[in-house]
Design a protein that fits this description.
heterodimer, A: mainly alpha, about 80% helix, B: about 70% helix
């Protein structure tokens, strides 16, 4: 698990470099990727399905990104784009393609639907948090403490 | 005169954001914000991932409009953050129009990371992803090589001005071939992990994020376009990879 966490941190950090994030922001972005992957692995180990495990993972990393982006005064997207990468269902894509190449249609359809489901769950998690964050900013603006 | 110049500068700022991977709603907001900070109350932009249309008017009789086509897109999140910050700052501490323009030119001219750094980062990222998916050290080393060579080739192909979809197709094919090859030679052990780890480099993370955020912002045209882009990238990647896997099974056989 520790190796997993470190690997996801390094992978996201490299992506932050590829996407040209400068300064200390890239270390924060990498933290988001690590949170995403560790949560996903934890959810899987508890026995939650491969599709549904992505929901807690995406909710947590987006919440982290929203909070950190406000602290760092940087657009939220710059963090989310990097932190989301480890959760993109690349493995599902590859396995679907592999089933197609071997002519295993029923498996291909099953895996393809699962991959689409994973992408959808990921999107739902990000959308959920971003909407909540929007509402909170609006409430704060209307009722400043 | 002044209205037209302000609008030009505002769309220039929008163009920088759009060209470097920003969301379209952010471009629209930035254009309106910059125009307002220079005293034009009525300014609207209509932005799609491939172009900007904006118009501004100080008096009803004096309407100016600008259309800017965005042809090539890269990813440089640093520029987005900087333009965003500049446009927000200008509301609180307004600066002269010329200074604002100079700052935009300065941001636009900022160099991205050197190709060497990016290629190195891609190689390390591929290795890290392979470990993340459960690969061992040998797999990580193989993925490092695959990521390095594949990034070198895809970067030089896209430098020649080839369209993005072909770059993805070729990238998927090259990564899969190298992944199979490294195991065949005996560097790595688990072929799928090496291939998936390197394929993660080309996965449409940016398109997915922008599709979600544009849809949420009510920008349906851009949201659907970005979503379609994400699916197209995924399909071309899988197709490139599939062609190689198919040929490999055909000619060399064996279990992959």
């Amino acid at each position: 698990m520790l190796i997993n966490a470190i690997a996801s941190y390094i992978a996201t950090l490299c992506f932050a470099v590829i996407f040209n994030i400068r300064g200390k922001n890239k270390y924060w972005a990498a933290g988001g990727g690590m949170i995403a992957w560790v949560t996903y692995q934890l959810a899987l180990s508890v026995g939650i399905s491969q599709v549904y495990s992505l929901l807690p993972a995406s909710v947590l990393f987006s919440a982290y990104s929203e909070i950190v982006a406000r602290r760092l005064r940087t657009p939220v997207t710059t963090l989310i784009i990097c932190a989301l990468i480890p959760l993109v269902p690349g493995a599902g894509m590859y396995n679907t393609m592999f089933a197609v190449v071997r002519g295993n249609t029923s498996e291909a359809i099953e895996l393809g639907l699962k991959t689409l489901g994973q992408a959808g769950t990921l999107a739902a998690g990000v959308a959920f948090v971003s909407t909540i964050a929007n509402i909170t900013t609006r409430i704060r603006r209307r009722f400043p403490l | 005169m002044e209205t037209g110049r302000i609008l030009h500068i505002a769309t220039y700022a929008g163009q920088i954001i759009l060209e470097n991977g920003g969301e379209t709603y952010r471009v629209e907001e930035t254009i309106s914000r910059i125009c307002q900070s220079f005293g034009i109350e009525v300014a609207e932009g209509f932005v799609t991932p491939t172009g900007i249309m904006a118009s501004a008017s100080k008096t009803p009789a004096d309407v100016r409009s600008v259309i800017k086509r965005v042809k090539h897109r890269t990813v440089n999140l640093d520029k987005i953050a900087r333009v965003n910050e500049l446009s927000r700052q200008n509301i609180i501490y307004p600066m002269p129009l010329d200074d604002f323009y100079e700052k935009l030119v300065e941001i636009d001219g900022k160099k991205a990371h050197k190709p060497k750094v990016v290629i190195g980062a891609a190689a390390v990222a591929a290795a890290a992803f392979t470990v993340m998916f459960g690969g061992n050290l040998a797999d990580a080393f193989a993925a490092l090589l695959v990521g390095l060579i594949a990034r070198l080739i895809t970067a030089s192909i896209s430098g020649m001005g080839v369209n993005d979809f072909f770059v993805n197709l070729a990238g998927g094919a090259i990564m899969t071939f190298l992944g199979l090859f490294t195991v065949w030679v005996g560097i790595g052990e688990h072929t799928p992990l090496i291939i998936i780890g390197s394929l993660m480099l080309l996965v449409p993370g940016l398109a997915i994020t922008n599709a979600i955020r544009d849809t949420l912002a009510g920008d349906l045209v851009a949201g659907v376009t970005r979503g379609a882009e994400a699916i197209m990238i995924a399909v071309t990647l899988a197709a490139g990879s599939g062609i190689v896997v198919g040929l490999w099974i055909q000619f060399l056989g064996g279990n992959i």
